[in-house]
Specification:
Radius of gyration: 21 Å
Number of strands: 5
Distance between the termini: 56 Å
Oligomer: single chain
Helix content: 40-55%
Shape: elongated
Number of helices: 9
Order of helices and strands: HHHHHHHEEHEHEE
């Protein structure tokens, strides 16, 4: 298996030809990764190398490993090196930016599942805590998604002034708080609960409803509203 090259495969089974004939959606994660890294080693095809990358490091595997691993970690994998590691991480970042770019103001938030659909893929693999605010109009249509802070949540970096500034500027009727837990466990901490209560109270004073606080984990999420914490 390891000595088999992609050229040894029947033409119709090669990743590039399958991509051209059937489209990207039919390719496996390994096939897409093989197309990205393009070449393997003397003893391994790009496809075999891709399968080995997706085995991860024993703790993380699959696309989670690819998304979370740094350039240095990837470059230490035999057959990858710095150039291929940079290519992989550039593709991951491009995917994240495309996900963010594809947001539009035609999205209506009617449930926590809609928040998950909007932000899960962008936030589930982040290595630091990111706090965002979804601005909504009177019909719960998304006006924009604003980045508020990066780093472990505490009352000094998630200040009502910073949270509500964009909401006031954009004349938002309501907001939804969203942040991620890099551990993958979305269970609210005591700090999460205290900050949420503080922001809900500030919203009441300003006349801007805080409809929910959604914590993104991997692959699950927690809604304060659903849990009766709001």
């Amino acid at each position: 298996m390891s000595s088999l090259t992609i050229k040894d495969l029947p033409r119709e089974e090669r990743p590039r030809e399958r991509f051209q004939r059937y489209g990207a959606e039919v390719l496996s994660d390994a096939e897409l990764l093989a197309l990205l890294i393009r070449t393997g080693t003397v003893s391994e095809s790009a496809l075999v190398l891709a399968h080995r990358i997706l085995k991860g490091d024993g703790g993380k595997a699959g696309l989670e490993f690819v998304a979370r691993a740094g350039v240095e970690e990837l470059s230490k994998i035999k057959g990858i090196g710095l150039a291929k590691a940079v290519q992989i991480k550039a593709a991951v970042e491009l995917g994240r930016r495309i996900s963010a770019y594809c947001r539009n103001d035609d999205i209506v938030i009617s449930s926590p599942a809609d928040v998950k659909k909007l932000l899960m893929e962008e936030m589930r693999f982040l290595e630091k805590e990111h706090f965002k605010v979804i601005l909504l109009n009177v019909k719960n249509r998304v006006i924009s998604v604003e980045d508020i802070s990066i780093g472990s949540l505490n009352s000094s970096i998630v200040h009502p002034r910073e949270v509500f500034k964009p909401a006031i500027k954009r004349s938002s009727a309501a907001i939804i708080l969203v942040h991620n837990h890099p551990s993958g466990d979305p269970t609210p901490s005591r700090e999460d609960i205290e900050i949420t209560r503080r922001l809900v109270e500030a919203g009441r004073i300003l006349g801007i409803d805080v409809l929910d606080h959604v914590i993104i984990g991997n692959p699950s999420y927690v809604s304060f509203k659903e849990k009766g914490l709001l």
